[in-house]
Amino acid sequence: MIRNLILLVAALIVCANTNAQKSSKPNVIIINMDDMGYGDTEPYGMTGVSTDNFNRVAKEGTRFTHFNAAQAVCTTSRAALLTGTYPNRLGLAGALLPGSKVALNPEEETIASLLKEAGYKTAMLGKWHLGNKPPYTPIHYGFDSFYGIPYSHDIWPIDYAGKRITDPANMRGGWPALPVYQGDVVVDSILTLQGQSRLTTAFTERAVAFIKENKAKPFFLYLAHPMPHVPLAASDKFRGKSKIGLFGDVILELDWSLGEVLKVLDQEKIADNTLLIVTSDNGPWLNFGDNAGSSGGFKEGKSTSWEGGTRVPMLVRWPGKVEAAGVNSQLMTNMDLLPTIMAATGAPLPEKKIDGMNFLPVLLGKADEGPREVLYYYFGKNNLEAIRYRNWKLVLPHPSNTYAALHGKEGTPGKIARVQVPTALYNLSHDAGEDYDVQELYPEVVAQIMLLAEEARKDLGDDLTNRVGENVRKPAMLQ
């Protein structure tokens, strides 16, 4: 009898310890879309497509309305998300191409490497874009496994109509077929739009399998969908199902994918112990017209420092901890995800300087205001193009892309013009579209933000003013 009682007490202690471990080490899932604009789902204003699962996450979690990517292009945005650092501090710029000679330095700590060290099982599925070949694939940056593509799926020798490029003057014609990696090994290559149409489903199925396999221990899943970046491709089960064409079909499939993740979390009864973050790497590539998304009314789009380029959707769900049906207007960036996740999981921060800030008290409702007041909008190689300070945004003189030209149709890109942008001050509380320059009315605000510009130039440098930063690190250099 006594022996049975001792065994019962021991079992209860083990059970309590297991539950305590679960509560102290939540699972973490980041779903990062590619080129999904601020207005591309119903919680952020989409019309014409029902996004039931995005709606569900917004209803069960909190919707952020002033969330920005650190830069409005693929490689730099993803570097910022995974390292919590301005990408130009890491020596990275733009979007890596097959011939690029740089990669994210493996000495940089990532969300994956930090969580792996803290006992997490880690996996990445989808688009990487921080190194084109081994040893610069995700398994060298803290991910236990990787299945996906090394860069954007338009980096291949196929035009936007799906035909092989034969023009010798077009550098794209010399690019290889789109490789699909399993770890460090190429296991497939894609040369058709039909092949690309299977990507969303393939990554989703593997995400569900990973969650099932690791439900009993803490895990980190980074699901980086290549869509809705062009060329658009939807599987047969979704093609032709929306009322707004192929772009709508792709959004429907991404919504289905999110639903599959929610379903398996429910089935395995781990939803309450899972911090789920859904966002995008940058705004829409607007010159593709009906094959591009919506910036939600913000100015311009991808590859610009206007709000349409960097302001992206961000939904956070953590049942019982993050406010349900919440709306948060605090200035936040994708750099802030790393320190926030480390705080939520009890994992350590990187040893090297990062630029992200801990928003966990905001997520948990323990603080009304976030810690971030400033965002530096860098672009190009290292151009300081604008600065956000609270509700103010000072745009500095710089050359910029503009989509105020002829848009494309049905997958054919339109023109992108170049303009010289003058100095301007915008009050985003009253002018979210950045239409009305008020610098003459608020010279004291301009002067205050220019002090911040000097701090940025000293720290990170600025090619526009020929400044070299004091605290910039080197990327990895490929042989």
What does this structure look like?
The protein is built from eleven helices and 22 strands. It is an alpha/beta fold and 479 residues long. The protein has a ten-stranded mixed beta sheet, sandwiched between helices. The chain is 26% helix and 20% strand. It has two domains: 24-372, 3-Layer(aba) Sandwich (Alkaline Phosphatase, subunit A), CATH 3.40.720.10; 376-477, Arylsulfatase, C-terminal domain, CATH 3.30.1120. Helix 6 runs parallel beside helix 7 (246-267).
Under CATH, the homologous superfamily of the largest domain reads Alkaline Phosphatase, subunit A
Query: In terms of structural class, how would the helical and strand content be classed?
Result: alpha/beta
The CATH architecture assignment of the largest domain turns out to be 3-Layer(aba) Sandwich
Low-confidence stretches: 1-23
Strand percentage = 15-25%
Q: Can you list the strand order of the major beta sheet?
A: 8-7-6-5-9-1-10-11-2-12
State the domain count.
Answer: 2
Taking all Cα atoms into account, the compactness measure Rg is 22 Å
CATH topology description of the largest domain: Alkaline Phosphatase, subunit A
CATH class category of the largest domain: Alpha Beta
- Beta strand count: 22
Pfam families: Sulfatase (PF00884), Sulfatase_C (PF14707)
Keywords: Hydrolase, Signal
GO molecular function: arylsulfatase activity
Protein name: Arylsulfatase
